[in-house]
Amino acid sequence: MKKCPVCGKGNLKSAMVEEKMFGFPLGAYKGEVCDKCGESFLPQGAMGEIEKKAKEIGIWGLAEKIKVVKSGNSLCIRIPAKLARFLGLKEGREILVYPEGAKKAAFEVT
Ligand SMILES: [Zn+2]
After folding, report:
1. Domain ranges of the chain
2. What's the gap in Å between 40 CA and the centre of ligand 1?
3. Ligand 1 geometric centre to CA of 32 (Å)
4. Residue 104 Cα, ligand 1 centroid: separation in angstroms?
5. Is the pLDDT of residue 110 over 90?
6. From the CA of 74, how far away is ligand 1's center (Å)?
7. CATH (residue range 68-109)
8. What is the DSSP secondary structure assignment for residue 100, as one 8-state letter?
9. CA-CA distance, 60 to 19, in Å (whole number)?
């Protein structure tokens, strides 16, 4: 029985692993799941498939680190062009911004 490399306590069991990126389903793949911490592991081939699928639906590379800049009393976040294109977001549009936890926020194109 293979031990889990993440928690070191659980055993890895064969399972179908549902992959998602930014909430988009990328299919189910044969992999291994830890019976203690729930961490999943996929073979190299599956990772390539997932990347291909994410590129097909246009979400690959949409996560990006950006700097916050000050504007008056507010803070501005630059939305990368490729994310704006993906969302169909244009200058002047309204978005709804809200927290999704202590260190996370989201926005919706309304
Ligand atoms: Zn584990």
Report:
1. 12-56, 68-109
2. 8
3. 11
4. 26
5. no
6. 42
7. 2.10.260
8. S
9. 14
